[in-house]
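Journal club side-thread
Mid-discussion, someone asked how the predicted structure for our own chain would compare to the paper's figures. Pasting it here so we can look after the session.
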Amino acid sequence: MNKTALITGATSGIGEATAILMAENNYNLIITGRRTAKLKSLEKKLGKKIKVLCLSFDITKKAEVEKAISSLPKEWTAIDVLVNNAGLASGLDSIQNGDFEDWEKMIDTNVKGLLYITRLVAPMMVKRKKGHIVNISSVAGKEVYPLGNVYCASKHAVDALSKAMRVDMLEHGIKVTNIAPGMVETEFSLVRFHGDSKRAKSVYDGITPLNAVDVAEAIIFAVTRPPHVNVNDLLLMPTAQASATQTHKKK
């Protein structure tokens, strides 16, 4: 029997790549996101191989999250893997010049959204005494960098929550993994720079960054370990990146 995975932010980037790889590994999928058309397109693509359920909602809205999870048909409530992928960066400013709207968007998505969905799915896992929660953090959750203040703080929160979840879930036999990528070329920079494609593209000039599939493969590695093995924390970088602030760019 196929296992079931719920992936947040599955409409693009790491979430979409993870859904595709999980389908190839025979997971049935609950895919979530705000862009219904993209979810339906992914469902059509993957539905030929496995069962797919689309849930379109805004993860920053607690009521919407509660409504979506409470509406799960009984056969979809045995969730084996939760991938907390939904997240974003918005803006790049010093703390004294920060935009309140950017701050709220990052905290609401990266921290509160992760908490909302985890609070509703974790009890299902506890009841079954099995499951695996994968949180997508960042190198920004390990160290801070100039102008990244609130984004870094939100990802430090994900890192801390991953450790705390691991402790809380220990007695229930539930695995928790923190995945912390370095530079990944997805919609990340485009969203951070509010749609400025030229500025977003310049971030990766002279470097070969990670791509969404690289991170998805790390997630698959973590969730396919034997029952006695848990990957607590996984930090992965492009070869040309050594830390949040150190990269080697080709001239």
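Post-session note: The mean pLDDT is 97.
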